[in-house]
Amino acid sequence: MCKLFFDPGLDIKPTENPMGFIYGPGVFGPQVENRKLKDISRSLMDPNCEGPDIVYSIAMDVGKDVHKELLNSMHLLYGVVTYAAGKLGVEPIRSQGHIHKVSPFSNWSTPEVYEIWSGEAIVYMQEYAEDNPGRCFAVYAKPGDVVIVPPYWIHATISANPNRPLTFGAWCDREYGFVYDGVKKHKGIAWYPVFNEYNEIKWKANPCYQFSEFVCKSPSDYANLGISKGKSIYCTFEENPETFLFVPSPQVKEECWINFVP
Q1: Catalyses which reaction (predicted)?
Q2: Domains in the chain, number
């Protein structure tokens, strides 16, 4: 089993061999879905690169048994993901990037609330899937940090440390779905993360996009969305479930998404 460096507030442990999760007493969760290198290669800078066969494992709809009915009624879903250690050629282990589909529940593309449990993460996001990607951000996050992706934005999660697996949880809309068309059309996200000889992440512009504003930063303070630093997002849900109503119904916090800075 992999060690967690932040307590997520529910009894769940990631495993490496095979990649996946062990659910403790009183916790429900599905068998993991594996994303293989061949599944994401088209979105990489070098589609023919070498790397782990299974890049990451994902379990959608995890939680405590006592909350199962409430989560369904709120249209809220908790997902957990663990990444392999290693590299994809000179690129870090990462997801390919997507936009959330428009949910029939809200008629919005929904936001996502990430929480890092172990490893080092970069949550990359850009405003648009068009030739002009708009504002682009790389948010560097460590265990215990929360990062929020706003509605309609392309985003990808990147493991910044090739020597350690990355594990995180996230609140999502229950009718989640991923749209990859814009990313695939542009052969990936607008800025490729690559390792230099010191295993430091550097960023290379994707020539399939127009040149764009790009900001590297630490996570914002999300107090205006009810998020408290240092408290797990699952514990926040336990204490006040309505905190995360904005995930399946982003229109309730519509003013927050205007000029949003993650």
Answers
A1: alpha-D-glucose 6-phosphate = beta-D-fructose 6-phosphate
A2: 1
